[in-house]
Amino acid sequence: MKNIAYRLFSVLFLAALLALGGCAKFSQISATSVKLQSINPRGMRALALKVDVGVHNPAQQIPLSEISGEVLVSGKVIGYVTMDPVTLAARADSTYSVKADVTLAEGVSLMEALALAKKKTLENATANVSAKARLKSGVSKKLKMKDIPLKTLMELL
């Protein structure tokens, strides 16, 4: 369970950063590291994570909120991740301590999730991610990315 939760969080946070990259000014924002700090079970279907994420941000300060996502395998949702808000410091290489909750989807067993975490290829796995970014000017934008191939994202981690 720990491995699948870590993968879900890592992939979705990276996908949220890639969503920012869709804006021309923010195309150079990137995750530089991901390190699991703590993991606490919440029953048999959920986990609370604390992860340190290194981010290179050459752009302005960007508060991110309402960060959430889902992971799908062959079109079936296997889990959901929600993250606490985080503000990316302007023109900095910083490490952020991010809290997240990972929950298995209804009808997905723990064994299914563990089996996915051990697979070497994630050919049929995708992620959908959304986050709200508020710029210094006060303008906010809901960023959404759908059908992000997990195989591609896992290669970046």
Produce a short descriptive summary.
The chain is 23% helix and 51% strand. By secondary structure, it is α+β, with helices and mostly antiparallel strands. It has a single domain, classed as Immunoglobulin-like.
How would you characterize the overall build of this protein?
The structure is a single chain. By secondary structure, the chain is an alpha+beta fold. It has a single domain, classed as Immunoglobulin-like. It is 23% helix and 51% strand. It is built from three helices and eight strands, in the order H-E-E-E-E-E-E-H-E-E-H. The chain has helices at 2-21, 110-118, 150-156, and strands at residues 30-41, 46-57, 62-73, 76-83, 86-88, 92-104, 125-134, 140-149. Strands 1, 2, 3, 4, 5, 6, 7 and 8 form an eight-stranded antiparallel sheet that branches. The longest helix is centred in the first third of the chain and has 20 residues, at 2-21. The chain is globular, with a radius of gyration of 15 Å. The two termini are 19 Å apart.
SSE blueprint and pairings:
Layout: H1 2-21, E1 30-41, E2 46-57, E3 62-73, E4 76-83, E5 86-88, E6 92-104, H2 110-118, E7 125-134, E8 140-149, H3 150-156
Antiparallel strand pairs: 1-2, 2-6, 3-4, 3-5, 3-7, 4-6, 7-8
